[in-house]
Amino acid sequence: MGRILESASVFGSTGSPGLRRSHSTGRNFLTHACAVLIAILVTASPALSADAQNLTFKIPPVNIPFKVKDQTVTITAWALISMVAKERDLDVFKLELSADLADLQQNMTGLLSAQLDKDEHCGDRITIERATLAPADPASLATVHLHYERWACVKAFGKQQARRLVGGNAVIPVKLTPGVGENRTELRLVPEVGTIEADGSLGELLRSGTVGEMIREKIRTAILSALQKGTNLSATLPPAAQGYATIQNAAFKDAGSGRLMVVLAGQVRITQEQVQMLSKQVKERIARQ
Fold it and tell me: What's the whole-number average pLDDT of the chain?
């Protein structure tokens, strides 16, 4: 019995340390492997995030035509959509939509003539002689050269006769500052009339009367209508992004040599499934070019 206990004692003293060293080595290996795995995951995570945030879609140029009298005017628009963040189930993209207004600039006289020209027998007679639209970052400047006359009709000897009350030439500068409409999907313009140059009493009439306000408002409306056609989100963006884009701010830019551009900045918030659809639609649009 004593020998058995002695043998057990010897086995315990010579075998157990080996087993303990074996278990210790295993634990050290597992610990080291876990540490390496964690290090790999930690290192890889920022890379995956960076790749996701580098996702960018370049929407190719789209020509958007519309009629000005009998002339077709074209605004060319394109967009850049870049991923900036993930929020729960949505991917958030930065949107930058640009529109080239060079053709509109060349047809400003026709555009404003269609809105402002009048020839009333007893009333206002307006003829737009020349109109320009130029950059004034971040606004634009419309300069309108016009001829204006006001006529009144009176009865004399039983007949109605028209008499000119005032008339002459005028130059009206209107600064147009871009903004964003309440629905966050449309451009708006705030007009500000500068110093009016006009013949004689016509200047006072244009500066203080309702005629000046009417002309300013029609200039704003005509230009805004054209710009809204050219910056329509549905006309430029693929279907997967339409209805999910909003505009945060807008600015006019000088593209060089007086060439005017308007740039809209905003966001697109879509699901991962819509991102995949957007990718497919952009590729299809590029292939059609």
Answer: 85
Q: What average pLDDT does range 262-283 have in this prediction? A: 97
β-strand partners of 90: 87, 271
Give CA 181 to chain center in angstroms: 12
- C-alpha atoms less than 13 angstroms from C-alpha of 41 in its C-beta half-sphere: 6
| Strand 56-68 with 71-87, pairing | antiparallel
- 89: its two tokens: 């189930």
Distance of CA 279 to the CA centre of its chain: 20
Q: Phi and psi of 21, rounded to 5°? A: -65, -35
**Which tens digits make up the pLDDT trace of 84-99?**
999 989 999 999 999 9
β-bridge mates for residue 75, sequence order: 64
User: How far is CA 287 from each of CA 12, 59, 65, 184, rounded to the nearest angstrom?
Assistant: 78, 12, 22, 31
Backbone angles phi, psi at 143, to 5 degrees: -120, 120
